[in-house]
């Protein structure tokens, strides 16, 4: 998940350098959403990771 967020962030930077503002803003939005999902899943994994093991 974090990998895809970084990829979309790099796409946004490249698009912004070449002047494609719409594509850059869309890629940044997707990267933000993926990063938030990654954070939520990472926190849940840390909190509940060891509680269900036998």
TrEMBL record:
Is Transmembrane among this UniProt entry's keywords?
yes
Checking InterPro entries in the record gives: DUF1328 (IPR009760)
Q: Which residues cross the membrane?
A: 5-24, 30-50
Give the residue range of the signal peptide: none
Query: Keyword set for this entry?
Result: Cell membrane, Membrane, Transmembrane, Transmembrane helix
Family membership? Belongs to the UPF0391 family.
Q: Which NCBIfam families match?
A: PRK13682.1-1, PRK13682.1-4
Identification of the protein by name: UPF0391 membrane protein JHL22_03990
């Amino acid at each position: 998940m974090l990998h895809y967020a970084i990829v979309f962030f790099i796409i946004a930077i490249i698009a912004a350098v070449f002047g494609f503002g719409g594509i850059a803003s869309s890629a940044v939005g997707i990267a933000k959403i993926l990063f938030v999902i990654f954070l939520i899943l990472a926190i849940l994994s840390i909190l509940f990771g060891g509680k269900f093991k036998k």
